[in-house]
Each structure stands twice: as C-alpha cells, then as structure tokens.
Amino acid sequence: MTTASPAVLPGASGAARAFGRSMFTKTLFDNRRVFGVWALATGLLAMMYASFYPQITADAAANVPEAMRGFGFQDMASAAGYLQGAVFGLLVPLLATFYGAATGARMISADEESGYLDLLLAHPIGRTRLLLHRFAALATGAVLIAITVLAAVLAVRTSADLKAVSIEGFTAQAVNLALLAVLFGALATALGAATAAGRATVFGITAGAGVLTYALHGFAPQIGADWLRHLTPFHYYIGGEPLKNGLQLADAAVLAAATIVLITAGTWRFGHRDLG
Question: For the whole model, what pTM was predicted?
C-alpha cells in the first residue's frame, strides 16, 4: 500500500484554493481514503489473528520454533503472550512501520519530486509550517490505525477468550503502536525534507531500517546480545509488555523523544537547504 500525495492542482488559481483551509486539514482530506484503508486493513488483520487464540493447543504453544521466541512467541499459552507474539509482535508492527515509511516518504519528497513543492511555497506558507502540518496529518493517520486496531481486538475480546488481558493493557499497546508508526513516519519525513531524495529512495531507506531493526530485536537474544534490543524502537514498543503491565511511560517517552529529534532535525535542514 502506498499513500496518495496531495492532488496536483493545475495552475496558480488551483494552488491558491489549496490554502482555503489549513495544510493540515487539506492533507487529511486528500489522504482520507488511504488513511482509512491502512486503518481498516491493519484492524482486520489484528482481529483475524486475535480470533485464532482459542484454537491454539498446548502442544502448539510448546512447539514454537526457538527462532521465533525473540519475536514475542515465548509464551503462546496465555492470552497476553499469544497477542504479544502473533498479533502485536509480528505483522501489525510491520504494517505500522510500512505505513510510516510510505506516508512519510510522500509528505515532502513526492511534492519536491513532482515540482509541486515550488508552487506550494510560492504562496504564504513557510517551510516549517508546511512540514509540521503534513507531519501532523501523518500522525493523525497513525492514531486512526491504533484506534481501529484497539476497537478490532476489543470486539473479539470475549468471543476469543481474551478477557485475561485488561482493556487498559490493550489501550497501552495501541498507544505504543501509534508511537511506532509516527516514529518511522518522522524518519521518512525528515529524510525527504533533509536530503531531497525521491520518494522511492526515502521509502526504501526507512522501510529497510524498520525491517533491519525488527530483525535485530528478534534475533539479538539468540546471539547472546540482548543489549542490542535497546538500540531498536521495537524494544520500546513491546519490550515492556504493555498488554500485561500497562503503559510504560519511559518506553513511550523514548519513542516520542526520538520522533521529536528526527522531525526537528528534518525541519531545520528543510528550512536551510536550497530547494532549487
């Protein structure tokens, strides 16, 4: 899935109409369908995998391959352990990562690549305002994904025998999911704003970083280097086991701080580099 960039408006009059509302609301409006598709797809995936929990047998839980235990599959017998591995430790965080990479790669890079950025900045909107409004829309899409996933798993909480996990635990994991998506969105947005790289390049670098750190987080215990996990965002996303322990403020703060550093650096560079 890729995120649609704001529509290229023909001529100066079209660009002028773009400023009839804030760049934040315009970006939300232009990407409303894409944000909805990301949220719906991720929510349905989470619901489907969460619904499989009653079918997990004791033998299946005990026979999880050793290579998968670092990805959260070390306790498949309990509801929280199953969700931490099969739902929130596998495909859902990767989808959130790809959402951030794809959307962030389009927020600045797509417009600069197409030449639309020059048209935008010829009107009364500063570079900083443009970038921050675009990024705020990206973050709103991430929150929508997290809310949809939360609603999806709560919808099957009783029927899938997941009541051992509290609503607070599910909410904490959803908060971390949003923060993870926003972090990779900040990385992609900052890369595009700072380097003028094309959207395909920015997406590739960001998605590659996501997959690499995901693999590092999963395989580090097998090579006796657990400390490497602390260098990955996935440790702060799920390492504190929010499904069992609730929101870990320190972990959430690390994800938020990394996001702020990335977007601040990208904004500063965007404001100082030659866009010609």
Answer: 0.88
Please tell me the distance from the alpha carbon of residue 184 to that of residue 177, in angstroms, as a whole number.
Answer: 11
Enter the tokens of residue 69.
Answer: 């235990």
Structure tokens at 272: 């100082």
The answer to whether 99 and 185 have CB atoms below 8 angstroms apart is yes
| Three-state SS annotation for 38-70 | HHHHHHHHHHHHHHCHHHCCHHHHHCCCHHHHH
- Distance between CA 16 and CA 12 in Å, rounded? 6
Question: Rounded CA gap, 199 and 161, in Å?
Answer: 43
Q: pLDDT for 178-200, tens place per residue?
A: 999 999 999 999 999 999 889 99
Give, in order, the Cα–Cα distances in Å from 201 to each of 188, 196, 209, 210, 253: 10, 10, 12, 14, 29
> CA–CA separation, 160 vs 87, rounded Å?
13
DSSP state of 159: T
- Distance CA(221)–CA(243), nearest Å, equals 21
Q: What are the structural domain ranges in the chain? A: 20-272
